[in-house]
Design brief:
GO terms for molecular function: (R)-citramalate synthase activity; 2-isopropylmalate synthase activity. Belongs to the alpha-IPM synthase/homocitrate synthase family. By secondary structure, this protein is an alpha/beta fold. 39% of the residues lie in helices and 20% in strands. Strands 1-2-3-4-5-6-7-8 form an eight-stranded parallel beta barrel, surrounded by eight helices. Strands 11-12-13 form a three-stranded antiparallel beta sheet, covered by helices on one side. The two termini are 55 Å apart.
Amino acid sequence: MNTARPIWIYDTTLRDGAQREGLSLSLEDKLRIARKLDEMGVPFIEGGWPGANPKDVKFFWKLQENPLQQAEIVAFCSTRRPHKNAADDRMLQAILAAETRWVTLFGKSWDLHVTEGLNTSLEENLAMIGETIAYLRDRGRRIIYDAEHWFDGYKHNPEYALKTLKTALEAGAEWLVFCDTNGGTLPQEIGCIVREVIENLPPQTQLGIHTHNDSGTAVANALAAVTEGVQMVQGTINGYGERCGNANLCTLIPNLQLKLNYRCLEPEQLVQLTNTSRLISEIANLAPNDHAPFVGRSAFAHKGGIHVSAVARNPLTYEHITPQSIGNERRIVISDQSGLSNVLSKARSFGIELNKQDDTCRQILQRLKELEHEGYQFEAAEASFELLMRSVLGQRKQMFEIHGFQIHCDLLKECDILPDSDEFCNNALATIKVRVNGKELLEVAEGNGPVSALDAALRKALVKFYPEIANFYLTDYKVRILDGKAGTSAKTRVLVEWSNGEQRWTTLGVSTNIIDASYQAVVEGIEYGLLLKLPSQAAAV
């Protein structure tokens, strides 16, 4: 039996997280995220503010039709308006129509916000808090009270700030949540204030913490509050949120559970954390943070030869937790800083067994360092490194040969884009000669640029022999100038990321000619995709 003290996780990605600049979630996006969080075992999911916009209204309707399996979906709103009756407030009617068991209500803790933000008296603000909670409680709702700007309010007028909490508690709030709304409080202040407030509240009061990251300490602030006795932690997946974001649950949960021995999720749910982080970043159409603690792609990546050698003997030497415990994995990064240990470990991940004493291993390492000196960067293009390794080992069969290509580009201002527009049409035509299975083919294709046209022509030629190619597509294309002082003669590195709907891989090319660098990356990308789909044929000698 797990006797660790439980911490209730409250996710507000769908409401507070959606306030991040550049993030926009559709109704279907919100439903997908809610169901994923439900699957992961998050007990409270804040769905939005019913009545604030039509999308949030429909979201709660959809969940009434098809409820979540275990999570409590929570509606969010503010206290009634000044000098109005709660029963007459249309906003509260929308909250009731959402038919959630739990409602999170926020009210003002800071006297400055009461007098200058709400433009009302301190007594009226207390009435707004108490009457709104009592009204919702009378209609069967359970209340989480978010004390907005709590820490600023307490620092400026502790007596009044405490009155707001006691008013909420007396009216029937079951949880009181301390909110660092401006994100300007530091961990030592958080701990001190939480400790003082607990002494001034009835025993067994259920308390929560809600922190923002404007000072870069949202996670540390939440941890400080928990160590002082707070039982609920509010945050967002990947730390999404307004301004600098909210406390990142993907960092908080492992720290609480694996480092501080609190109980947040079941172990079989915790292993979904990395996948959940990446899935939600994809739904939000935001690039995952590869260097995020715990769930980032680089969180357990090892590059230096000494590190790799030590980790091979005992992972504890350079890993603070087991990556599999949160659904991540160890990665051995290949670069010019690599040693034989990197090559051996990376080969093993490709299903290739090498002997450290074998000269082939040193040949691979030597070739790697030579190419990295020329500008290649295999740590970002592991697919290209596997192809390199198989070449040295004599395990790379040529599934096709390029016998030449030409690309013709027309830059025309006479376009039908928009009348009187200064935009140019960039039409490209690629001609490519390919040899496959002893047959020579000449194909032509158009594209909206030279790389697009080249990719289309190559696919057109190869898809007749390898139908799998129809499912390969580019997900990212990056160009970097390696020696800017050389001007237009500078060497260029191109990284192309691919997917077949199930797997992702990255290939690269380097050349002083950007078309040639792109060509290298595109050709290797298609070849590697075939290696994944047709391993026995592709690796045959």
